[in-house]
Design goal:
- It contains nine helices and no strands.
- The protein is mainly α.
- Helix 4 packs antiparallel against helix 6.
- The longest helix is centred in the middle third of the chain and has 26 residues.
- About 30% of the residues are buried.
């Protein structure tokens, strides 16, 4: 196994430009978001930036996954915040941080379920759900997440001719853990064109 990616050795300028673009995007993010109170949101959007700029041609970088995943995260986090933390579990949440942990865990689990059920899988969006539950909810935060996700979609679209996948395709394939059982090949249905939006 080589220490340096062979793709980096062939086109180091592309790697440098896309990495500097990622740094600029995250700088803007940090400028507008108070990192101390919204660490989960910053982590979610920073991770989305990584996916869009390191693997721009991957399925998780598509608009459906990026926007849909964060929409699911926002919806689940908002419901968790208002219905559970400030509703059903309000008295428990005022006495114990454990209530926040429970609702945060439920938010991540529900976001995972809804993203996979709606083909909007975008793993950083699970942190969006968590951040909306564990920190003070504000409309400004919701608007910023929507704005940032749309901006990433636009950046990817505008630079689509220039961006390359920095992670080799062979390393994007799933890795089997010992004891993993895969279904027989004939049982796996091929993806439809609607799955690749």
């Amino acid at each position: 196994m080589a220490i340096l990616d062979p793709g980096f050795l062939k086109t180091p300028r592309k790697y440098l430009v896309q990495s500097l673009l990622g740094a600029a995007v995250v700088f803007v993010l940090l400028y507008f978001v108070e990192t101390v109170t919204h660490a989960a949101i910053v982590a979610a959007l920073g991770s989305s930036t990584f996916i869009v700029l390191a693997t721009p041609h991957s399925i998780m970088a598509t608009p459906r996954r990026l926007l849909g995943g964060h929409a699911v995260g926002l919806a689940v986090g908002t419901v968790g915040h208002f219905v559970l933390l400030n509703g059903l579990f309000a008295s428990w949440a005022s006495r114990s941080e454990v209530a926040i942990w429970v609702v945060g865990a439920l938010a991540v689990g529900l976001a995972l379920l809804l993203m996979t059920a709606t083909n909007t899988e975008h793993s950083p969006a699970a942190a969006t759900a968590l951040g909306m539950v564990t920190h003070t909810w504000s409309a400004a935060t919701v608007l910023f997440i929507v704005f940032f996700a749309v901006a990433l979609v636009l950046i990817r679209w505008l630079l689509r001719r220039y961006l390359i996948d920095l992670l080799p395709v062979s390393e994007q394939l799933p890795v089997d853990f010992p004891g993993t059982v895969r279904p027989p090949k004939e049982a796996v249905s091929p993806p439809t064109t609607g799955d690749r939006q």
